[in-house]
Amino acid sequence: MTSVLFVCLGNICRSPLAEGVFRDLAQKRRLSDKLEIESAGTGAWHVGNPPDPRSIEIANEHGIDISQQQARRITEADFSQFDFIFAMDQDNLRHLSAHRPPDGTATLSLFLDYAGLGQKDVPDPYYGGTDGFQRVYGMIETASSGILDRLFPVNDPS
Question: Fewer CB within 10 Å: N-end or C-end of the chain?
Answer without folding.
Answer: C
